[in-house]
Amino acid sequence: MERSNREYTIGAVEDFMLQIGRVVHAGEVELAIFRTSNGAVYAVRNHSPHPKGGPLAEGIVSGYYLYDPLHDWKIDLRTGEVQAPDRGQAEVYPVTVEGGVVKVTLPAAVTTLN
Amino acid sequence: MAAEREKLVLIGNGMAGVGTIEQILKLGGAYDITVFGSEPHPNYNRIMLSYVLEGSKTIEDIILNDLGWYEDNHITLHTGTTVTRIDEQNKVILTDNGLAVPYDKAIIATGSNSFILPVPGSTKDGVVGFRDIADCDAMLAAAKQYRTAAVIGGGLLGLEAAKGLVNLGMDVTVVHLLEDLMERQLDRTASSMLQAELTRQGVKFAMGKQTVELTGEERVTGLRFSDGSVLPAEFVVMAVGIKPNVQLAKDSGITVNRGIVVDDYMQTSMADVYSVGECTEHRGTCYGLVAPLFEQGMVLAKHLSGVQTPGYEGSVVATKLKISGVDVFSAGEFTETPEHTVISAKDEWKRTYKKILLKDNVIVGAVLFGDVTESANLQKLVKNSTEMTNEIYDEVMGTSCCGGGGAKKGMSVEAMADEEIVCGCNGVTKKAIVDAVTENGFTTVDEIKACTGATRSCGGCKPVVEQILQFVLGDSFQQSAKQGICSCTSLSRDEIVAEITAKGLRTTKEVMHVLDWKQAEGCSKCRPAVNYYLGMIYPDTHEDEKESRFVNERMSANIQKDGTYTVIPRMYGGVTTPEDLKRIADVSLKYDVKVVKVTGGQRLDLIGVKKEDVPKVWEELDMPSGYGYAKSLRTVKTCVGSQFCRFGTQDSMGMGAMLERKYERLDMPAKFKMAVNGCPRNCAESCTKDIGIVGNDGGWEVFIGGNGGIKPRIADAFCKVKTDEELVEVCSAVIQYYRETGNYLERTSEWVERMGLEQIQTVVMGNDDNRKELAARIDFALAQVSDPWRKMLDDKNTRTALFEETQV
Ligand SMILES: Cc1cc2nc3c(=O)[nH]c(=O)nc-3n(C[C@H](O)[C@H](O)[C@H](O)COP(=O)(O)OP(=O)(O)OC[C@H]3O[C@@H](n4cnc5c(N)ncnc54)[C@H](O)[C@@H]3O)c2cc1C
Ligand code: SF4
Ligand code: FES
Question: Which ipTM did the prediction report?
Answer without folding.
Answer: 0.86
